[in-house]
Design a protein that fits this description.
heterodimer; A: Undecaprenyl pyrophosphate synthetase; seven-stranded mixed β-sheet; B: Undecaprenyl pyrophosphate synthetase; 11 helices; 11% strand
Chain lengths: 321, 264
Amino acid sequence: MVAYLFLRLLHILYASLVFLKTSLQSRRYSPPQPVTAYRSKVPKHLAIVLVSNDTVHSKHTEELYLECLARVFTWCRALGIEQLTAYDAEGILLKHSDTIRERLAHHIELPTDESETELEYPLTPPLSESSESRSHSPDFGELPVELNVTTMRSLKKGVLHHKPREVAVRRRVHNKQSPCSPLTLHIISRSASKPAIASAARCLLDEALYRRQNSDDPAHAKAYQLSTSDLNSMLEGRSGGLPSPDFMIVHHVYPQAPQPPLELHGFPPWQITLTEIHRTIIRDVAPPNHSDASSKSLLISEQAFCRALDEYAGAQFRLGR
Amino acid sequence: MTWPQSFLAFLKAQLALLLLRVLTAGPIPRHVAFEMDGNRRFARRTGRRAVEGHSDGFHTLKQVLEICMRLGIRCVTVYAFAIENFNRPPEEVDALMKLGEERLVEIAQNGALLSQHGIRLNVLGQRELLPSHVQAAIEKAEGMTRQNTRSILNVCAPYASRHEITLAVQSVVQQALDKEKVDSSSITEQSIDENLMTTLGGSPPLDIFVRTSGVKRLSGFLQWQCCENTQIHMVDTYWPDFGLRDFVPIILDYQQKMWARSKV
């Protein structure tokens, strides 16, 4: 009992220290570079993870998520980021994928009348029907497995009108990205996470069973072998799969102060091997005149996005060496 | 050490023990994982070779393990060597292999750290990639601690999370194929989870994931285990410097989460 009281005291002490530290940090707060500033490294594939309190699950949360996604989508297009994955554990975004499609089509600027912007769902490859088409080693990228990834692509047809912009997007890389380059959007929920791997496993079982039944010596089947690259082709390298993001931003729409430790909220585990992870800080999304940040809901601000990009640009990769 | 210095050291140790006792009055995580990064940079900071940093890192591992045992954390997993680390300069790889070979047996001896706390050693990963003398040492060390039941130490070497997940998927498919009546509905995320190396070794779900040296990636460590309901701490401290100062706040954060959850 005495120990428990001391523990509570320790927690109070800790909370006070954290509060002090955060206050000192906000005094020394320095804003990040603007969106279109030069950065030595920009992710090719960005993932945004949207989190809300477990108990709050309202229309308001849905609106917040949709607005956050719209903002991030616009910034990604401005920076030439080629792929964006939007994840929320509960599947709110997935539920509203049609609304998202409409809204994003409106969000995109139309510089001239000739150019057209549309969002389309890429064609799903036809399932292989004839049994003769199955070779001895299956093309793992073509096995029919439902991975629960909704993918949309924004296209730009016609001539892009070059208006003089205030700041140009410049990068060390040679490719000249226009301010509104094509962007592939993947919308996922927890169903694309561990359940999708289970789904792939079931598909592999069907495939193995078929091969065993059609083999020359079904009674003496060899031990089942699966390689990492084959499973990777199934989960990532196909239409309907989800490639690995370079960078992940975790954003809480109802932030708490002090912020609890980072969690990944069930994001697909296969794809996060080398993903740089960042969480938005309250100071960036809640300007100082918000007296009670915890009760307010907070959209992801341009500042928060920029700070994330600054951090990504500064990250070092040693790749095991 | 002079008399006042040794007295201060004694006092410091006693205070640390007291602090740990106080912490055990609250919720304690079941399973904590450490990605022990920063050994080489730590050594370079003081102008020493990378290999010496690894030696310091091992010393810290023993200390952190001691802290975990005193706190009552029943399972600790550490990332000792990634499959990718074979890309490192051969002298460094050889030195790491030698370190692993000698030290694992050292701590598994009677009366040493693992037996003191009843810790069973599991070495997880693609063991066949290791030199045969290292494999032999691992088997010896595991054998010496097999009867321990109080706690578990998982040493991942050489390990890659995708490889672990692939093996688990391979296992569930093989198990389904082996049944009389093949039923694909028996393959679920739970059955894959049960076939992960960590679970097969008796590890509970992962509560806390710590990576040192300021890197903000998982780099192929415990991806399946940490992607849900796990608190992730990326601390700037280099691994050899990691200690109570970094670890106590991590435990306090965990306790706050558990208390908040019990209120709901």
